[in-house]
Amino acid sequence: MRNTEETKKYEWLTEAEQAAHDWRKDCIDTVVTDINWELMSDDYEFEEWHIGDHINSYVENKCIYSWDCKEILKQLNYDIWADDPMTGERANSEMQAAIWALEGALYDSDIEGQIKNELNLPENEEE
Prior knowledge:
By secondary structure, the protein is an all-alpha fold. Helix content is 62%, strand content 0%. It has one domain (14-120). The chain is built from seven helices and no strands. The protein starts with a helix and ends with a helix.
């Protein structure tokens, strides 16, 4: 997933911060592509909450397999034994920890706003 070319310009970031940046970029690209495909359908009406649904789907798809969960936890330097900063609870499994770690990395910035900007929606479709 991570490409050294992608992260070279962010040398001041820690490895976990670079991984979070790369995950955010991948998520934004994936969600924008998926929504743009749906917008091509005549019967699809965009609503802002669709962005959150697509982000949730992205996270769940990335955390299906145990190996992927371990990789996410390692890349994001997430301590599975500590309480999660967003929920205040300890994860019940590696998968739950990976989901929380990835959500934390994605929502560390205004990812929904970034996705909206990338979509270039006409004014009447944003409401």
